[in-house]
Amino acid sequence: MKHIRLLTLFLILGITTLSAQKPPKREFRGAWIQTVFQSEYANMTSEEMKADFIRKLDLLQTCGINAIIFQVRPEADAWYLSEIEPWSRFCTGKQGVAPDPLFDPMAFLIKECHRRNMEFHAWLNPFRAGTSGTSTLAETHVYHEHPEWFVTYNKQLLFDPGIPACREYICRIVEDIVSRYDVDAIHMDDYFYPYPVNGMPFPDDNSFRTYGKGYQPEERDNWRRENVNKLIRELKHTIVKTKEWVRFGISPFGIYRNKKSTPDGSGSNTNGLQNYDNLYADVTLWVKKKWIDYNIPQIYWEIGHPAADYITLTEWWDKNAHDIHLYIGQDVARTMKASDLTRKMELARSLRHVKGNCFWPANEILWNTQGIADSLREHYHRTPALI
Q1: Helix, coil or strand: residue 6
Q2: Is the CATH code 3.10.360.10 the one for domain 25-128+161-380?
Q3: For residue 320, how many other CB atoms are within 10 A of its CB?
Q4: Under 8 Å between Cβ of 91 and 148
Q5: CA 231, CA 238: separation in Å to the nearest integer?
Q6: If you write DSSP's letter for every residue of 256-303 in order, what string do you get?
Q7: Which of 282, 303, 318 is nearest to 193 (CA)?
Q8: What is the DSSP letter of 79?
Q9: pTM here?
Q10: Helix, strand, coil fractions of the chain, as percent rounded to 5
Q11: At a CB cut-off of 8 Å and minimum separation 6, what does 368 contact?
């Protein structure tokens, strides 16, 4: 009887140990800090902004976050000292006006992130030049020098991706950042060609006539995809030749292609907007060619979502990772509202190519939305992780 009791005790201890296994030693645990449409910073002094950054980084660090993806270029502008683009209006309240007293937010954040063993990923929106047309642009904005590079679509001012000079300019911006700052990565999200509006064609007739030689009118979609492919390829080359250790990551919309849209049925069993067909972003090509170093698809839906099930999409991206790092973009508010956090974290850690998660937005963690900060700190990220 004594031996039976001991055996039972050992079994209980073993089960308890298994259920309390430590999180992975290496795991990407990122959080996006957006600046577009964030008015809070524009009302801060330089010292108040520094204090706010420190507060946020300290709280995120306690939640196990080890990578900050900070939006440094939301509108062809800058959250850093730049001789090419004007200061962001979301930083100081008016585009082209520097912080007073002068300080460099990106340099400050890089230093504070590295002090906490966090990576700093500089997040740029490549083609967006103005969220409200030209009304808020500083005199030093590139639009005033090269208006022929731009088109307006759905009230947004955009670089025309079909113009080679636009790609060259964006590469120049990235080279400037990588050469002067100790960034760990350059990051871009899902805004390449803009999200389509029904009945509103993208106004690239002029650039297609000029630069679309070799493409028939019915092949314009292929030409658009190739324009984005060229940008990604040229950016990768720019980063490697400048500092080969700096990574290049993309966070695309969560659906590459729906199965019904692919002749071979290789797409995901979903129904929704598609990277390939609607945004002209051939993400799996970039992965196969190793033009990017990591991929963070924005799988923001709930488990069981009728049009875009989280599990279906996560498993699809895992099968199509092609041996580069895959992290999963998580919508914090939707995840917590659906009580999906446990299943999502367990699924990510069970798949071969998934190397971590990135949480959108960081503010939801800072607000501890439905206990997300507590859950990360006390359970899923209770021990630090290396990237």
Answers
A1: helix
A2: no
A3: 19
A4: no
A5: 10
A6: S-BGGGSTTS-SBS--S--IIIII---HHHHHHTT-SSEE--B--SPT
A7: 282
A8: S
A9: 0.94
A10: 45, 20, 40
A11: 374
End-to-end CA distance of the chain: 49
Q: Which residues contact 105 (CB under 8 A, 6 or more apart)?
A: 49, 53, 79, 80, 91, 99
Angle between helices 220-242 and 164-180 (to 10 degrees): 20
The residue extents of the domains of the chain are 25-128+161-380
Long-range contacts of 77-85 (CB under 8 A, 24+ apart): 77/138, 77/141, 79/35, 79/105, 79/106, 80/104, 80/105, 80/106, 80/107, 80/177, 80/181, 81/107, 82/176, 84/142, 84/172, 84/173, 84/176, 85/140, 85/141, 85/142, 85/173
- CB distance 79 to 35 below 8 Å: yes
Amino acid at 356: G
The distance from CA 355 to its chain's CA centroid, rounded to whole angstroms, is 15
What gap in Å lies between CA 280 and CA 319, rounded to an integer?
21
Question: Are the C-beta atoms of residues 76 and 85 closer than 8 Å to each other?
Answer: yes
Taking CA 308 as the corner, what is the angle to CA 302 and CA 313, rounded to the nearest 5 degrees?
90
> Which residues have CB under 8 Å from 138's CB, separation 6+?
77, 86, 87, 94, 95, 96, 97
Q: Are 339 and 294 in contact (CB under 8 A)?
A: no
pLDDT, block means (10 residues), the chain with 387 residues: 49 42 89 96 96 98 98 98 98 97 98 98 98 94 98 97 98 98 98 96 98 98 98 98 98 98 96 98 98 98 98 98 96 98 98 98 98 98 95
Are 233 and 291 in contact by the 8 Å Cβ rule? The answer is yes
Integer-rounded Cα Rg, in Å, for the chain is 22
Residue reference for tokens 């969220």? 131
Place of tokens 């660090």: 61
User: In sequence order, what E strands does the chain have?
Assistant: 28-33, 67-73, 119-124, 128-134, 150-153, 156-159, 185-188, 247-250, 294-295, 325-331, 354-360
Question: pLDDT tens across 73-84, in order?
Answer: 999 999 999 999
